[in-house]
Amino acid sequence: MTGRLIVFEGVEGAGKSTQLARLRARLERAGVSCRTFREPGGTPTGDRIRAILLDPGASLDARTEALLFMASRAELVSTVIQPLLAAGTVVLLDRFFLSTYAYQVGGRGLPEADVVRANHAATGGLIPDLTVLLGFSAAAGLSRAQQRGPQDRMEQLGADFHQRVESAFSRFGRIDWQASHPEAGPIVVVDASGTADEVEERVSDAVTARIPDLGHSMTRAVA
Ligand code: T5A
């Protein structure tokens, strides 16, 4: 089995963490070696950057914010993800650079070309094998996230900001957008409405269709 990078993306509260954990459980039942990480974070330095980025009391310029997300990413990619992929591990990642495109370009309005260039420096050109983009409404996702307790700095940014983020994620699902952004790799949009069990089945089907060897492993484990 070769290493694979599978990314989960979507608006706040879309169910990324829930579905990532469920896919990991399915893969591990199938005997697939698998690790999970989230952005920002995943390394000691990244976790400190995460604390700054999500601190509701922090005031950050939009460019500072974008570069901090990318600094966390650079550390995670070079010290953790690349070695794991080289060792043949399947890496499941909760958010990657499509989040920067959605939040800092779509939401904040930073110039896309600048962000794409800086992001390339952060990732070293690493392209996910598959991005599972959970399609969900920002309003419904925020309401789920709010039920968990106090809002973090990004959640506090208001309905208009999060609507722009949702619109950006919708664009990323389009074939023409993907054709003009080859650095993003293959993206599959999965409807994230319904129960967690229903979404899990859709995610599993999508991964099986796009990465057949992983799908066959999961199917053999169920049979
Ligand atoms: N960000 C991140 C940027 O601005 N730029 C970047 O480059 C990057 C990488 C990260 C923040 O940083 C921003 C985006 C974010 O604002 P985070 O806490 O990691 O912060 O944020 P989220 O990824 O949004 O985490 P959430 O936990 O809010 O969302 P998830 O992971 O999508 O949702 P999940 O699975 O935790 O589920 C949320 C709740 O809904 C329930 C769960 O049990 C949970 O309570 N749930 C369901 N309920 C009913 N039906 C279902 N199908 C359900 N699925 C889950």
What labels would you give this structure?
223 residues; alpha/beta; Rossmann fold; 5-stranded parallel sheet; 10 helices; binds P1-(5'-adenosyl)P5-(5'-thymidyl)pentaphosphate
CATH homology-level superfamily: P-loop containing nucleotide triphosphate hydrolases
Distance between the termini: 20 Å
Order of helices and strands: EHEHHEHHEHHHEHH
Q: Please indicate the count of domains.
A: 1
Report the uncertain regions.
none
The gyration radius over C-alpha positions equals 17 Å
Total count of helical runs of at least 4 residues: 10
Largest sheet: 5 strands, parallel
Fold-level CATH name: Rossmann fold
Bound molecules: P1-(5'-adenosyl)P5-(5'-thymidyl)pentaphosphate
Proper CATH architecture: 3-Layer(aba) Sandwich
Strand content: 5-15%
How would you classify the quaternary structure? single chain
Bin the helical content. Answer: 55-70%
How many E-type strands? 5
Q: How much is the average pLDDT?
A: 96
Structure description:
- The structure is a single chain.
- The protein is an alpha/beta fold and 223 residues long.
- The mean pLDDT is 96.
- It has one domain: Rossmann fold (3-Layer(aba) Sandwich).
- α9 crosses α10 (212-222).
- It is globular and about 50 Å long.
- It contains ten helices and five strands; from the N terminus they run βαβααβααβαααβαα.
- Bound molecules: P1-(5'-adenosyl)P5-(5'-thymidyl)pentaphosphate.
Itemize the secondary structure elements and their pairings.
Layout: E1 4-9, H1 16-29, E2 34-38, H2 44-54, H3 62-86, E3 90-94, H4 97-107, H5 112-123, E4 130-135, H6 138-146, H7 159-172, H8 175-179, E5 187-191, H9 196-210, H10 212-222
Helix pairs in contact: 1-9, 2-3, 3-5, 4-5, 4-7, 9-10
The chain binds P1-(5'-adenosyl)P5-(5'-thymidyl)pentaphosphate (T5A).
